Amino acid sequence: MKGVVFLGDREVALMDFPDPTPGPGEVVLEMKASGMCGSDLKQYRRAKGAASVPGLPPPTEPVIGGHEPCGVVVAVGPGVFAAEAVEGNRVMCHHYHGCDNCGHCRTGWAQLCQTTPIKVYGNNAHGGHARYLKVPAHTLVELPEAMSFAAGAAVSCGTGTAYGALRRLDLSGRDTIAIFGQGPVGLSATQLAKAMGARVIALDVSPERLERARAFGADWVVNPAQDDAAAAIRELTGGGADCTLDTSSSPAARVAALRALKVWGRACYVGEGNNVEIDVSADMLRRQVTLIGSWTFSTHIQAECARFCLERGIAVDELFTDYWTLDQADEAYRLFDQQNTGKGVFLL
C-alpha cells in the first residue's frame, strides 16, 4: 500500500509499505477518510530529524502520517472481544496507545499514560494517510450510521478536541466565550459552543476565517491584527468574557485570552507548542481566574462528541473546504500550510 510520510522541512513523500496483518488484540481498518489537523503542520514544518511532539522521540524509520483516521474494520486478530471490532463495522480511532493497564489507559485516556512512552498514530506510529491502518481493538470508537466518514475523521481529533475543551470549561448558555483562532479546531469550537447555547466571539488574523466563523454562528468577530483583542472583548461583553479558549498556539493570544476574562473567568489552552509569559498576580490571582490545559479527549468523550453533533444537528462536514487523494498530499499540505483555508481531508 501507499502511505504519506512527512520528511520534514515541508516535504512529503508517498512511500510503499506492506499491507498490515492484525496480531493478537489488533484489528486492521480500511481507511475511508483521514483528516488533516493543524498539529500535522508541526511535523510538516519540523527540521529533518527533529521531534515534532515534545517528549516523544523522533521516528527512526518512515512513519505514515495522519491522526484523524476513520474507516471500516476489515480484519480482526485473535483475542479481540471489543464490540466495535466486527468486520464491516464503521469506526473512528482514538489515536493513542499506552500501556493498556494503568488507570488512564483503562478509562480511555491512553495519551496520559505514565507507565510507558505512548504511541501517537501519525507521529511515532503509523497513521491514517494510507489504505489500511492496524491498531489495538480497544482504540476503536463506533461511528454512527448517520455520520459521514469525513465527519468521523474530524471528531477523531480537531472537533473532538474542541468538544473536550468546552466540557472542561463547563460551558453553558449562561456564558459568553471568546475563541482565539478559527482554524479547524476553533471553527469546531464555534459550532459546538453555539449549540451549547453560549454567545461566541471569534478571533483570527485571517479575514477568510473570520467570515467562516460568522457563517458558523459567531455573534461577533475580532481581528487581533487590527484591534487590541482583550480590550475589544471587554468592550463587547461589558467587562470581560466568562470563558476563553485558545486554539492558536500564539503567545500573544494566550496572554489576551487571560486578560479578556471577567473576574472569576475560565480560560483553556488547547493549541500545542510555543510558550507564554504572564503576570501571575495581575492576570490570574487577583481576578480569581482559572486556567485549564486540555489535551484532546478520551474514547468516551470522542463517542459523546459524535452523539452530540448528531443530536444537535451540527454540520461537521461544513468544516471541510478541500478534499484530496493520497497522491495529492504535497499540494494538500502546501495549501494547508498557509492557514487561511478550512479543513482538508483525504478520501480513500
UniProtKB/TrEMBL annotation:
One function term, GO molecular function aspect: zinc ion binding
Family named by the database record: Belongs to the zinc-containing alcohol dehydrogenase family.
Protein name, entry field: Zinc-binding dehydrogenase
Keyword Oxidoreductase attached: yes
SUPFAM superfamilies from the UniProt entry: GroES-like, NAD(P)-binding Rossmann-fold domains
Domain Enoyl reductase (ER), residue spans: 8-346
InterPro entries: ADH-like_C (IPR013149), ADH-like_N (IPR013154), ADH_Zn_CS (IPR002328), ER (IPR020843), GroES-like_sf (IPR011032), NAD(P)-bd_dom_sf (IPR036291), Zn_alcohol_dh (IPR050129)
Sorted UniProt keywords: Metal-binding, Oxidoreductase, Zinc
Regions crossing the membrane: none
Pfam families: ADH_N (PF08240), ADH_zinc_N (PF00107)
Cofactor(s) the protein requires to work: Zn(2+)
Organism lineage: Bacteria, Pseudomonadati, Pseudomonadota, Alphaproteobacteria, Acetobacterales
